[in-house]
Here is the input.
Amino acid sequence: MPLMTNRRRFLQLMGTGAAAGAMPGFVSRAHAATPLTMQAAWINDAEFAGYFAAIDDGLYKNEGLDVTYLSGGPDVIPESSIIAGKADLALTTPDTTIKTIVDQGAPFKIIGAQYQKNPIGIVSLAKTPINSPEELKGKTLAVPPVNVISVEALLAINGIDRSEVNIVPYAYDPTPLIKGEIDASLDFTTNVPFTIEQSGEKAVSFLLYDFGYKTYNDTVVVTEEVLKTKRAELVAWLKASRAGWDANFADTTAYPPKFASTWFAGTGRTIENEVFFNGAQKPLMEHAGGIFTMDAEGIDANIETLGRIGIKATPDMFDTSLLEEIKG
Amino acid sequence: MTRFGDHLATGVLILLLLAAWEVAGQLKLVADGTLPPLSAILLRLAAEWREYWPHVAATLYTASLGFLIGNAVALAAAVSFCLWPVAERVFRGVNIAAFTVPPIALAPVLVIALDGETARITLAALLVYFPTMTAALAGLRSADPRAVDLIRAYGGGPLRTLWLLRLRAALPAILSGFQVAAPAAVLGAVLAEFGSGARWGLGTFLLGSLGRAEPDRLWGIGLTATAIAGLGYALSATLAARTTSLNRAVNIGITGPEPETANEAPLRRALLLAAAILMPLLIWQAMLFWADLSPIIAKTPMGVIDYLITGKTAASAQTRLLAALAETVPITIAGMLLGLGFAFALALLSFAAPLLMRALLPFALVTQTMPLVALTPLAVLILGRGITVTLVITISVTFFAAFVVLAQGFAMIPKAAFDLVDAYGASTLRKVRLIAIPASRQWLFVAARLALPKALLGVMIAEWLATGKGLGNLLNQSRGYLDYGMIWTVAVVSILLSVLLYQLTPVLEWVGRSDRRVR
Here is the structure.
């Protein structure tokens, strides 16, 4: 079956779904908050603190939005939620999103970037440190299967043959690293060093970003259809979310404890871990133009990086016009 | 030895084993302290129970709904299959698929096609369906044929027979099905929570806790899941014990005959076979039609064929799939043979040393309900990331069901069979060799049927968590690439592979039978 039929049928489906959703939106906008659903990329942790702040402080409400927040997890592919119409926007990894646009003709647009610098990095113990891709040669590196694509890119960019690194699955538990069963793992550098230090070891890490893998992360992605029909709501969401992040970053230790009995209740993680996370992510997210900014330089870096692993990104996949609307 | 003495000895043995665990934990003997002492796990559990209960409540909710829905569908199906044997043959493909599907391959597909809550309940219900359906159907068919004739002679139709006789006769079997189904529902719920973005549930709690590198927390969650599963088992067992004593008068316990197929017209048989194969595809297509999803994410049977065989993606997809299968299939076959062998050895042990076995049983049960992801660090630290870890995980996934069947088989050998060898003063070992092993032959095939499809699940789990090879890894990597076609393909191929393994047993059985005839 040719892919074209799929795509046409897909666009039809999207069209009918979105039209039905948009009508009540226009009517009620003046009177009541418009519903907007966002799909996060992982379980509730500090990675999403700005959105929790914006919800709790009524920032979305002030913008006329009634935001529904969907948590993520290992089996949740955020892009699936927006294709299926379960969510209006999703926080995604740009490499997979762009690959899907290129390979499968998915009608996605990236309208903002939460992380200017992708927080994923290579974490190792300070007593056996690995400080550059070069030092990965001959070592065992644990990588979550979904991120293998990024590591392969890192190795390619740094001229290292993939066969020189023993890549094994990372099952979200740093114990094998702490016990020395593996030499390094790929994880959010904003997160796992805390656990390692809790267990009495010192951790070192480097960002993939700093070795040529210059991608955003938690890109804000919508379908073209939602972009057309809910543009005003999306602009409002960006504005309120930015305000939420600004409030959260005013003091990185302030908000996580506030979420202890709400957003962070029962996640199995500690508030100290979230505070560490929140502090560590601040420099990766901040930009002179404000949170979510996608400047020409950043977009070019993403396109160039992805091009090196054969993913042909183009500037039109990034739509900066909504961010323009919320400028200063 | 007296009954009381037996219990006492079992109790002492269990305590000894627990003490060994405690010592091993305290002295950090296992994998540099990755196996925590039991006391540390329990103390931590007690200190954190407030954090646990919303998760326990959520898991209970999902598991209970899955249990109710799965059982309702299973009972309705069993009654239909009993009334219309043709329906059973048409749905045979669906039934085998429901039994053999590796849950980790299905979970991502369910999360794509359904919303979170529905996906979780569906997975729990699906794992419940098969054990209850088979038990209920066997029970319904086990009604005493003389009583069936009696009702018929008085002018009662099939419905009357069903109501007056079959349902009552089937009750003990149905309840025994519930005993298997209850832990399955809990396992399904936890597994689905782990992946589906649920806010609450033991699976979610486990996922968040993994990053803390604190094995006592992980074991606490695992043992809580085990306790819930055990509770479900115990409740069903109690209910069964009560009801069975009331029903014993009705249930005469003749194994129900399989519907006669030998002298059937070949055309009819071929049609029914074709229907059995097409039915799962029809249901798959219908569900997607009903869910009304974009073809980008939801692949229909034709969509998968396009992706894998006719479309422009075919060449790359086939290469990756074949490479994965080449890694997965051989080790699956090795794993299932070892799992079966291990089950056989355990069953022999339970025959030769029932005391020791009764003490080991609770620990064996834990291996069935502990979420394997919680044990991964322990497994890789002890066993590494090679073939050994895959085989051990596969054995742990496969052996239990086979063991239960085999142990039951040994227990059902008539006492009289041993009288002669006893009279000649035979040792236990000799009795095993002369009587038990030959008598267990027919049970071995039943056990193999239960074990074989699970072997693939074990291998895929090991590949996903530890080795990063084969089908399990391909599935997870496809999520990273948003390769929806491959996600669906892996789900379909793993079901087909499991069905193939399942169908292998009748062949083995046939070989075994002809072998016996020659002798």
